[in-house]
Amino acid sequence: MEKSIQSELIGVFKYNENLNSFEASKGKIHWELNERNELVDKSEMLKRAEKLFLFLEEFDQKAKIAITEKLIDYKNDFWPEYDEDDENLNWDAVYAGEYNVTKEEFAEAITLYNIEIRANDIYCEYHDGDLFGGHRIHAYFDNDYKLLNADV
């Protein structure tokens, strides 16, 4: 069994037996090649990771927009930026959306920190920037980088 895979771009991916995957860190991003499906081609997964690495900034910007579109209403409806028990709360302002987080604020708050290349998709985790009380945002993309789903 291979214990590591070398990437010219990302570095050395070391095998993690507990997760059945190869892991590497580059900058603030943790990378993973998920081998849980025995039929995966490790070299193909590495090529996909390196391709993504080459335009990671562009991917991240587009991903943040897509995640924001998917989760902004959930954020503003169920994770409000005001205290419902505040007796001085201006409910007219609440109903007018004055406490809502904007799409720009949402996208700016979240931070990519984990990328997992899997057999049929790409899984990313984002720090929520305290939009959801410190919970992680889970985002799933197809191999063309289109958002499939996002949740908290």
How would you sum up this structure in a few lines?
The protein has 152 residues and is of the alpha+beta class. It is built from four helices and eight strands. Strand 1 (4-7) and strand 2 form a beta hairpin.
Secondary-structure map:
Layout: E1 4-7, E2 11-16, E3 21-26, E4 29-34, H1 42-54, H2 56-78, H3 91-95, H4 103-109, E5 111-117, E6 122-127, E7 137-141, E8 147-151
Parallel strand pairs: 4-5
Antiparallel strand pairs: 1-2, 2-3, 3-4, 5-6, 6-7, 7-8
Helix pairs in contact: 2-4
Walkthrough of the structure:
The chain has 152 residues and is of the alpha+beta class. It is built from 4 helices and 8 strands. The protein has helices at residues 42-54, 56-78, 91-95, 103-109; strands at 4-7, 11-16, 21-26, 29-34, 111-117, 122-127, 137-141, 147-151. An 8-stranded mixed β-sheet has the order 1-2-3-4-5-6-7-8. α2 (56-78) crosses α4. The model has no long low-confidence stretch (mean pLDDT 94).
Low-confidence spans = none
Helical content band = 25-40%
The ordered string of helix (H) and strand (E) elements is: EEEEHHHHEEEE
**Globular, elongated, flat, extended or rod-shaped: what is the shape?**
elongated
Tell me the Rg in angstroms: 19 Å
* Total beta-strand segments: 8
| Separation of the first and last Cα atoms | 35 Å
- Give the averaged pLDDT, no decimals: 94
Strand count, sense and closure of the main sheet? 8 strands, mixed
Query: Strand fraction band?
Result: 25-35%
Identify the strand order in the major beta sheet: 1-2-3-4-5-6-7-8
- Structural class by secondary-structure content: alpha+beta
**In DSSP terms, counting alpha (H) and pi (I) runs of 4 or more, how many helices?**
4
